[in-house]
Specification:
Radius of gyration: 25 Å
Largest sheet: none
Distance between the termini: 47 Å
Number of helices: 12
CATH superfamily of the largest domain: MazG-like
CATH architecture of the largest domain: Orthogonal Bundle
Length: 268
């Protein structure tokens, strides 16, 4: 590895060693899992910031925090005699070479879709060659972890179904389905049926994920950008009122809506 990566591995080993940090020494794969998830989300958020502003300093920092999690787990693995950071790097390098025969071999794959389709075939072949026991699946959807966040789970489920032809053939069809779900939600709201309302909101969200997939949009990214847009516009309302020496509670909806529209026009 490079000198800088070697230094990071050495620092982590020192923290885990006798006389090191009590907290670091107590950690296990399981106790670190929540931090791995948090760091992944923070890196995701930093990517959105970098894409929007061109400023990559935050992304660099968050990728470092994510890398630390990999090194932390690998240090624990080395202590237990289970695997090292070199094993992790070697494994992913081999995987990349094997799954890119169009780059490192003679395969001809011209389109991104061809690469993805071939990727699944190669994964299956690797499992057979390794002698690993094949998972017994009652459904192809069982390959999608149930603990995924809702948006990601919906996206993965529908991608699996679409691969075997269970999908809308035209983009207009999915947009019509979205309209249908909105009307069903209206009916549930009119009946004040709480359980039915929840069900229809779920159906609508699921269809919106399908709309995103059909349009080649990553729904989590799209929602994150909208969340950030909402934050910025709402802050404009807060700051505008603050400049007047007033609070949110002292403004009515019409005034806040007017300021919201101002924020929109300023961003346009």
């Amino acid at each position: 590895m490079s000198k800088k990566l070697d230094e990071l591995v050495a620092v982590m080993a020192r923290l885990r060693a006798p006389g090191g940090c009590p907290w670091d020494r107590e950690q296990t794969y399981g106790s670190l899992s929540q931090y791995l998830l948090e760091e992944a989300y923070e890196a995701f958020d930093a990517i959105q910031h970098a894409e929007a502003t061109g400023d990559v300093e935050h992304l660099k920092e968050e990728l470092g925090d994510l890398l630390l999690q990999v090194v932390f787990h690998s240090t624990i693995g080395a202590e237990r005699g289970e695997f090292t950071i070199e094993d992790v790097a070697e494994g992913v390098s081999q995987k990349l070479v094997l799954r890119h025969p169009h780059v490192f071999g003679d395969a001809k794959l011209e389109k991104a879709k061809d690469v993805l389709d071939n990727w699944d075939t190669l994964k299956a072949n690797e499992r057979k060659a390794s002698g690993k026991a094949e998972k017994t699946l009652d459904s192809i959807l069982d390959e999608v972890p149930v603990h995924f966040p809702g948006l990601l789970e919906a996206l993965k489920l529908t991608k699996k179904a679409a691969k075997v032809g269970f999908d809308w053939t035209e983009k207009e069809q999915i947009l019509d389905k979205a309209k249908e779900e909105i009307e069903e939600l209206r009916e549930a709201v009119a009946k004040a049926d709480a359980a039915h309302i929840e069900e229809e909101i779920g159906d609508l969200l699921f269809v919106v994920v399908n709309v995103a997939r059909q349009m080649d949009v990553e729904p989590e990214t799209a929602l994150k950008r909208t969340n950030r847009k909402f934050r910025n516009r709402f802050r404009y309302i807060e700051q505008s009122l603050k400049n007047q020496g007033r609070s949110l509670e002292e403004a009515d909806l019409a005034e806040m809506d007017s300021l919201w529209n101002e924020a929109k026009s300023r961003a346009a």
